[in-house]
Amino acid sequence: MRIKITVLLLLCSVGMLSAQLRKWTLEECVTYAVENNLTIEQFELDLENAQIDESDAIGNMLPTLNGDARLTENLGLSFNPTSQEPVSTQLNFTGNLTSTLNMFDGLRNIRQLQRAKLNAISNQYRLDDLKDDIRLNVANAYLQVLSNKEQLKVFRAQYAVTEQDLKRTKELVEAGTSPRGDLLEIEATAANQEQQVINGESLVLISIVNLAQLLQITDYENFDIADEEFDIPPSDILNNSAKVIYDKALSFRNDIKLSQANVEVAEKDVQIAKGAYFPTLSAFVNYNTRYSDQNLVSVTDLSVIPFVDQLWIFDGLAYGFSLNVPFFNGWSTRNNVQRQKISLERAKLDFEQTKLELESNIQQAYVDVTTFDKAYQAAQKTLDARRIAYQYAKDRFDVGLMNAFDFSQAQSRLDNAEADVIRTKYDYIFRLKILEFYFGIPLALD
């Protein structure tokens, strides 16, 4: 039994360790961020409020029904409601049931419902636009972790090669075939590369923490991304002009839809404000009844009429219409209409500004893709040349035809070239993904 328990505990420990060392893919990071972001949760609550406003607008067009009841006891001189004789105490009950219906209010209720629907749509676009921004931010942070990890691998590989050179140089110096200056130079190069490894590890850790914070994960020690290397994905996005990409983005981008919906909401606000110029017409019906312990069957018979009978005997019904005509209200209606018109013009300007910003961002993204593609290609050519130069220098250094200082310079130039390739590679991938995102292509690295 003890053995079974021990095995079970070991299996649980392995399971917990596996869960802690989970490696996150880009898709998992994006999905988790969208589902757990606090700002998104706040925007979702705003959307729920907007949907409740729509229900309120529907309710404003329905008739109301309200009832009230009052039970009072009078102490002191009062009058019998039937005989009108004075009495010292009296117990009274009254009840009312009233229904009202707004028949016409300048179409404000109808337009209020239309506005509520548009506002709910606007809040949905606002929520979706935030999700788009989060997806891009997470993708950028994820690619930064990948870039830093790839650079760290290069630093470690370079340091391993230099350690081999350092070991061999020590042997040559001890054998008297190489000057001690070569050893000192190699040691300096090794120390510099060791520092690069330490800095690289710090950059990886910082970028992982930044990504975890975007995902609102606080267990940084057990958070990491999948250990994958990504080549530049194939894409034909540049087969489309920036104008074509912009025209398509106008048809589906949530920031554009949000600005356009805000214009429509502002137009409804103007119509609602103008509705106050019109008279309002409402209908009402009221049913009322009462009871008193002083209501007698007759003057000679002092028995009180039963409670239920009095409710039927003394009930009444009233109904009618109410018309309210706004002749003058201190220009409040006119001023409110003017305010809403100003808000409408501001919404139109915001819409145009959003379109200009989108066009500018797409133009910039288009130029960035072209620029970083060329930068990556140039960095790759430089790296190929540096590798050949480094191998040539190493061959000369190995046979004693190059001193350690010149060899370390060749090594340094190779290190910089490899770092430039990694940096420009991920810069290009991210800009490419941004441009594809504007074209409606989902974020993915495969």
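Second entry:
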Amino acid sequence: MKKLLISPSNMALGEQESQIYQNILKQSTEISLNLMAVKVENHPEDFLGWCYELLDVAKNRINFDLLDDHQLPTVKKLQDMLISAISFLQVKTLRIAPWPMISDFIAQRSDVLVLEEQLKLMEYIATLRDNKLQDMIIEDRLAFAGKHTAKHDTSVYQFDVEWFASTKSAKGFHQQLADLPGAFDEALAHIPLEGPVTLENYQGFTIAFLSAFNGSDEKPTLAPATRLLAMRRPDVFTPITNNRLDALCQALGVTRLNNRDFERYWQDIVQAIAKMPWFAMACGTSELESKLAEVKALLPIFFYYADEDTKTSSNYYKLLHKPKRTTTSSGTKSVRRSKESAATLVDRALSDESMPEHIRSKRDSIIAEVEKGRSVDETIQLMRTIFG
């Protein structure tokens, strides 16, 4: 273990990497005896490999039974520092990597990235872009805006709507979106659905987005704005979240943005990524590459740290693997939907050409059950069981 801990001192580290290494060493001091008890046989010669190896030690190989309670937060902080370092180092490669290397990196990590599910979200979002937020059912509006609810029926939303920057913690934004969706439509209207997006387009969006909060006690912040922009034009805008912003800004070599840096977001994030060699080269020589090229501004997100737990952290996965009903002393508890939402979800399912006509004829009954909280698939299967 000692050899592993000191090995980066023999690597040709840049100034940022050296500072990260020193911070990790300081964090390791309090649990040094516990770390020294771990036998290490793999000694990577690069800093990224070193971070992965030490993270594996801190997550899976250290003896947690021998840790005192006051040391557990130290271990967690060490893990977080290593995860941030890995994200920084991987995103940093985007500054010089060519397109084939970018697409290969993502393809090779497709399982751990839950890539299929993430791309399903973007395919679904593509069907919504021509619609106004104020005309969408609530579930679709929240899918576009990045907030998951139990009403996102897994038979329709076969993905976690919070991929590519969750906005669930932006309560003020969601209150305004619920009250004044048309105001955000006015903001998004400044961003063309095709062709170049200019600074003037972005400035028009920014002014309208900020104006949507006029007369409200809620404060407009940057992160949810970038989620809307990224869903509108995933080939132009990269969404940001507070927990990954340090790694992204470090990798791009810019000072960390604060939550009101609308001007710097355009210059330091959007324009910086657009100038990278791979961005101009992005094209499709395969089906996967074509899909990635269509959402190329989202690709930096695939370079953040991901592991085997990424899949199980998906809200879609959690919904699939939890009981559909919970019984309490007061009876059966379920999530009710609006009649409009239930009708929309059911009509989408019934539009399948393979759906039998006698099942389609039960549309009103199916809608009534879905409105009560039963899933679309569950209700249709019940109808098939009853009526054949």
